[in-house]
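Quick one: structure for this chain?
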Amino acid sequence: MGRVADDALRDMYGMMSPCVLCPRRCGAKRAEGEKGRCGAGPLPAVASFGPHFGEEPELVGSGGSGTVFFYGCNLGCAFCQNYDISSRVPVPGTEPGRLAALMLHLEAAGCVNVNLV
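Got it. Here's what it folds into:
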């Protein structure tokens, strides 16, 4: 990676412990294994991924929107349509290289963008 990417990565890891990555700013020490309000530890956990065609045509194109669903959520909505995945976080999470490979797979499959849900 280049210096700018290295700096950005270091900044993101710094925001993770104590955690201020989302508006909840729960302060969990995720780098030390503590779970945040979302239930996530130091690595994101991918629940599923694939092309999604349920949005406006301009957003999905002919190949779909590449959607990556993550386990864990900090909102706790009463009528969550993704409760089965948002309410739990399996361990271990998804290594950054594996997550990048999933995104590149979606691109190679013809997805016009990548959505992180």
